[in-house]
DNA sequence: CGCTGTGGGCGTCACACGTC
DNA sequence: GACGTGTGACGCCCACAGCG
């Protein structure tokens, strides 16, 4: 099933993203899998926005498409898994991100917010350590706190983990070893370092939510939560754009296939016409 | 060489939707 | 209902090409 709100999409004058709507329209026109009910009529911008925002995710769309059309590749649930996750992490519950440290350890951030660290040499999931991110609500007793810091002046991002170590994001992905770049795509690389002198701006060290009393602490907690949310949203936006590009590529290939099919059918029709209605003169 | 238009990427905000 | 996630919209920046 092809969703049919494409003709309700509107483009902002300075729209900068590629016009997937145009492609979708082209595909829908060629394939004629669609009703044209909504192609007419005036819909106010609010309504259009409402409809637009209910559009299914690219992943859903593409996966539906792939089930209808053989040969259309699916968007995997997690790119990091499909592109060569280290074997000892492969059995873990779907991580959202996997990083490799300069010491060769793998850090997997699971969807629940748990961080797992594994050594490349260890078998299976042995050696994994599960940490709990502080954004996942009140940590259970004895939980390990991992602190996130806003990007510092040199463009790096840091996680503060127990044991006086800091997980620092490299400035550029290409700094990662080639084997890592192949395994993670555009995924940033992280290193475990000893912490520098003072905490970077925006860092609030471990304070369990229950122990927050003063307005200053509350404000710091709010700031920390905001930074965390922004970081997650940043990553989500990147991932969303990646999926969108993949989706557009898929549409382009589908257009090509359907155009070829269409051409063949037209030729076939012409042939049949010639056979059924020979010229009389 | 400076200006301008264009395209692509990124970060952020707002909002809908799904989950617990 | 709170919270997390996905995505459209917007604004900004940068690179590049074309032009005078």
Automatic annotation (TrEMBL):
Record keywords: Activator, Coiled coil, DNA-binding, Nucleus, Phosphoprotein, Repressor, Transcription, Transcription regulation
- Which GO terms fall under molecular function for this chain's record? DNA-binding transcription factor activity, RNA polymerase II-specific; RNA polymerase II cis-regulatory region sequence-specific DNA binding
Q: Name one Pfam family in it.
A: bZIP_1
Give the family from UniProt.
Answer: Belongs to the bZIP family.
Leader sequence residues: none
Q: Which GO terms describe its cellular component?
A: ATF4-CREB1 transcription factor complex
Identify the main location.
Answer: nucleus
Spans traversing the lipid bilayer: none
Top-rank taxon? Eukaryota
Query: Would you tell me the protein name for this molecule?
Result: cAMP-responsive element modulator
Q: Does the keyword Iron apply?
A: no
Location relative to the cell:
Nucleus
Coiled-coil region(s) at which residues?
Answer: 248-275
Source organism per UniProt: Carlito syrichta
Q: Which residues form the BZIP domain?
A: 223-274
Give residue ranges for domain KID.
Answer: 25-84
């Amino acid at each position: 099933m092809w969703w049919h709100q494409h003709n309700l999409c509107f483009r902002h004058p300075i729209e900068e993203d590629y016009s997937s709507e145009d492609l979708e329209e082209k595909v829908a026109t060629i394939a004629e899998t669609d009703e044209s009910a909504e192609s007419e009529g005036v819909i106010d911008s609010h309504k259009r926005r409402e409809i637009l925002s209910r559009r299914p995710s690219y992943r859903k769309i593409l996966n539906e498409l792939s089930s209808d059309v053989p040969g259309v590749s699916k968007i995997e649930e997690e790119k990091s898994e499909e592109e060569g996750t280290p074997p000892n992490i492969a059995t873990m519950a779907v991580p959202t991100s996997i990083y490799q440290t300069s010491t060769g350890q793998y850090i997997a951030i699971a969807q629940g917010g748990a961080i797992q660290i594994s050594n490349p040499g260890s078998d299976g999931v042995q050696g994994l350590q599960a940490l709990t991110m502080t954004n996942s609500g009140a940590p259970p007793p004895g939980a390990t706190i991992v602190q996130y810091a806003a990007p510092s002046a040199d463009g790096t991002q840091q996680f503060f983990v127990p044991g006086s170590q800091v997980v620092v994001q490299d400035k550029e992905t290409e700094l990662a070893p080639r084997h890592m770049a192949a395994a993670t795509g555009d995924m940033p690389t992280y290193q475990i370092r000893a912490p520098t002198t003072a905490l970077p701006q925006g860092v609030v060290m471990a304070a369990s939510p229950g122990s927050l009393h003063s307005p200053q602490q509350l404000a710091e907690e709010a700031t920390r939560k905001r930074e965390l949310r922004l970081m997650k949203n940043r990553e989500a936006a990147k991932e969303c754009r990646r999926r969108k590009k993949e989706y557009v590529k898929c549409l382009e290939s589908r257009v090509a296939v359907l155009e070829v099919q269409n051409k063949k059918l037209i030729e076939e029709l012409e042939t049949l016409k010639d056979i059924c209605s020979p010229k009389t003169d």
